[in-house]
Amino acid sequence: MSSVSRIILLLLSLLLTFTGRAQDVESNNAERMEVELYSREDFRATRTREFDLLHTKLELSFDWAKQWVNGSATLVLTPVFYPQDLLLLDAKGMQINEVLLISRTNASTQPLIYEYDGTQLQIELDQTTERGDTIAVVINYIAKPEEYASEGSPAIKDDQGLYFINPQGKEEGKPRQIWTQGETEGNSVWFPTIDSPNERCTQEMLITVDQSFKTLSNGVLVSSEPAGDSQRTDHWIMDKPHAPYLFMLAVGDFTVVEDAYESIPLEYWVAPEYQESAKAIFGNTAEMLAYFSDLFGYPYPWDKYAQIVVRDFVSGAMENTTASVFMEEVQVDQRTLLDYNWDYIIAHELVHQWFGNLVTCESWSYLPLNEAFANYGEYLWNEYNYGQDEADYSLKEELYTYLAEAEEQKAELIRYYYEDQEDMFDAHSYSKGGRVLHMLRAYVGDEAFFKGLSVYLSENEFSATEVDHLRLAFEKVTGEDLNWFFDQWFFNPGHPQVEIEHFYKNDTLYVKLMQLQDLEISPVYRLPFYVDIHLAENIVRYPIVMENLIEEYALPVDEEPALVVVDSENQMLWELYHPKSLEELYYQYFNGGRYLLRKEAIDSIALSDSDDLKTSLLEMALSDPYVRLRVDAIDYYMEYPEALTPSGKQTITTMLQDSSSAIRSSALRLLTTLDYANVRNAVLTALEDSSYNVVGTALAALYEYDLPTLEAYLNKFSDYTNINVVIPMASYYSERASEESFKYFKTKISQVGRNDLYYLLQYINTYLLIAPTEQQQALAPLLVGLAQSHKNYTVRFAALQGLFLLIDLPEMEEQIKEIMQAETDPQLREIYMLFEADLN
Question: In this model, does residue 469 exceed pLDDT 80?
């Protein structure tokens, strides 16, 4: 086998690894050692505050050709306590032109001596500044964010702070934009500041742009004045203090759709072509504001709320104060919204306006004080708007996301030791953090939980906090010492692994509990939960507080239980092993109540050897009140068609008219698999469905069973860009070396969404194996561009796969080497290193 062939096979073998990696930027898994040892010098202390930054005024204009920011920053500061004669500011990759001190007695200025090392600006003050004194310093500078070497993290792709999108206007179909992304310490790439989450100030920005552009920043727009040469200066003022990493600006051609919540203006900033769907995307914002304001016992704290969608964003979304930024995938037509919505990410960023913006984590060690609450906000909105089943589903998904990461690393929620602050943006801070808050809510009760949040927000508004502030707020409300809860869940790595056995004898239920987690990593947990015992006429609930490795309980009951359920409301964050018989699981589906209990029953019985129970339960599950469980039942019939009875098949046939597009799609997929000829007319009807998902399923059926009919519809569906339609079309074109196939793939590369592009590339790579040389040569530059600079690392990987298939083209091997050597993603680098030796 040649070296090149070996590389291709290895790349293909890694495909499943990348398919399974999360596309969502707000939580990402990173490979780390389970236990990392740090020295005392590695301790991540909260940044010491010599000065209190009171106000920041930025005057900005832009050199699009050079991708520079021409800036003047006026900072107003006062010593925190000790007298100061030096001022240290964060300013990365800038050209500092001058530093001036505004006179303390009049408006005159005088130059100050400074030293600049490319990262920090050290300014010598003209005299020692005492506590209570205020100084104003002006820094005139040029920011060069595109020239700043930045790395970022899996959650936030890089940290250059400010981004010019299509600055020369040469990329067809892409707007010219400028936008910023400050978290964690990116904003100090475009303005000098004290770039730390425990700092906060008021701000104003005077942004000079071409008249054709709109601008957005924090706070409110107070004036917009002509600035000569067809330019305009917009003056934005933020009169409430917030952290510098939450400063933002955006420039571009946007349509602004207005809405309101009480007296608070709401704005949805979208590309002009999405004006009609803006309210459909963001339309629940007003109700979310009302709900969270009431739930948190603290009214929305800011003067406005804008949500803006930008191109090529480096994250999923960012909660800048009063102005959240979203990735372009959020921007969809109303037809797409029939299949899914973006409420989860909209709720997440909105909750940050309280938890993160109003009250900010003191350092990145305390990031869960921001992200766990935003994560849990998704659950709360699901619970309120979509019902308990949907909320429980999201709770399960968060647990699985955390557990997947916990297989590779076990870290504390509050981490004082880490290599880089970006490491904190992981499933521990998000998913585990949200689940821990859910446990706290379950333990103290709803009334105390939300009262505790209100106290926490009220007592710490416009300030930075440690986790002890949260604990003290709950202790104030409940009167209970909660150190035990916070210690074991916030300051210890890992999670409980619990095995439970039970049996009934002589009017007594015997329950044995065992904690099995590795005690070298995790503690012995204190675990409060309930055991529900299902009897013939009622359910008896026993509270349990497990505090030892092994505990045994004898619970009096009058009869042998039909079912024993531990933690029926899914409150605990643990791995639970509690074996049940198939008969108990069958009973559980009908009597357990909650989604996860019904889900456990369906999954267990569907995978069992009990044909009778499987047939009965799956048919009953077709009428489950929750859409996802009905879909699960249909999908199980794909694996076990022998369990489908005539009445079950008739039920599924009626589901072709269901109001849920997910149900219609799954039903159509199953029926075409069972008997395409009998449902061909239904497939043709589905081609006119309002849902892209259903249309895609119909096209996939034609591809599988009826190619001549599919070919008759090629012209109609080749222009679609929704990935559900693109995939079956791409399947067809990938197997036919033709000019039509070439044009389809060349066009679709620039049309599908950024994350969807990964899946399209799998079909393009298949096509490359049969494409004529001239078509390979035409597609190669597109793949090179994606492999070099696409923001999604899975897309870069898939594009490089395609380039290896073209390695015999002139100079392609050298381009592949350059791409692999320039890659910055740590996991991709690790993979690419396996192949570099073979290419050398």
Answer: yes
Q: Residue 181 has which token pair?
A: 């992304």
For residue 244, is pLDDT > 90?
A: yes
pLDDT at 509 over 90: yes
Is the C-alpha dihedral spanning 490, 491, 494, 498 positive or negative?
A: negative
Four-point Cα dihedral 453, 454, 460, 461, nearest 10: 120
Give the type of residue at 180: T
What's the CA gap between 732 and 114, in Å, rounded? 65
Cis peptide before 184 (omega within 30 of 0): yes
Sign of CA pseudo-dihedral 268, 269, 270, 276: positive
Strand partners, 572: none
Mean pLDDT for 506-511 is: 96
Query: What pLDDT does residue 35 have?
Result: 45
As a whole number, mean pLDDT of residues 401-405 equals: 97
pLDDT single digits (tens) 128-166: 999 999 999 999 999 999 999 666 555 455 689 999 999
State which amino acid sits at residue 612: D
> Whose CA is closest to 46, among 425, 360, 471, 492?
360
Give me the DSSP letters along 335-375.
Answer: TGGGT---HHHHHHHHHHTTBTTTEEESSGGGTHHHHHHHH
Tokens of 453: 């949040």
CB atoms within 10 A of CB 628: 16
On the question of pLDDT at 11 being above 70, the answer is no
CB-based contact 121:139 (threshold 8 Å): yes
Q: Is 183 helix (H, G, I), strand (E, B) or coil?
A: coil
Indicate the pLDDT class of residue 37, thresholds 50, 70 and 90. Answer: low
Distance CA 643, CA 640 (A): 6
Cα 73 from Cα 97, distance rounded (Å): 12
Q: What is the pLDDT of residues 264-286, one digit of tens each?
A: 999 999 999 999 999 999 999 99
The DSSP H or E segment spanning 429 is none
**Short-list 154, 171, 161, 173, CA closest to 28:** 154
Asked whether the beta carbons of 560 and 536 are under 8 A apart, the reply is no
What does the pLDDT read at residue 6?
A: 38
What lies within 8 Å, CB to CB, of 225 at 6+ separation is 232, 233, 235
Residue 750, CB-side half-sphere exposure with 13 Å CA sphere: 11
Residue found under tokens 């399960």? 396
Which secondary-structure segment (H or E) carries 68?
strand 68-79
The DSSP secondary-structure symbol of 171 reads: S
Cα dist from 215 to 33, 74, 220, 241, whole Å: 45, 20, 11, 21
Q: Rg for the chain (alpha carbons), in Å?
A: 29
Q: What three-state secondary structure class fits 412?
A: coil
Any idea what the Cα angle at residue 804 is, between residues 800 and 810, rounded to 5°?
110
Yes or no: say if 574 and 496 are a contact pair by the CB < 8 Å rule: yes
Contact predicate 297/453, CB 8 Å = yes
Burial of 107 (0-12, 13-18, 19+ CB in 10 A): exposed
Do the Cβ atoms of 687 and 657 come closer than 8 Å?
no
Q: What are phi and psi of 721, to 5 degrees?
A: -115, -10
Tell me if 178 sits within 8 A of 146, measured CB to CB: no
Average pLDDT over residues 669-684: 97
CA dist 262 and 294 (Å) reads 13
Q: How many angstroms separate the most distant Cα atoms in the chain?
A: 93
Instruction: State pLDDT tens for residues 208-230.
Output: 999 999 999 999 999 999 998 89
Contacts 24+ apart (CB under 8 A), 469-477: 470/369, 474/440, 474/444, 474/448, 474/449, 476/452, 477/444, 477/448, 477/451, 477/452
| Rounded-to-integer distance, Cα 181 and Cα 317, Å | 9
Please give the helix or strand (H or E) that residue 487 lies within, else none.
helix 483-490
- Give the confidence band of 178 by pLDDT, cuts at 50, 70, 90: very high
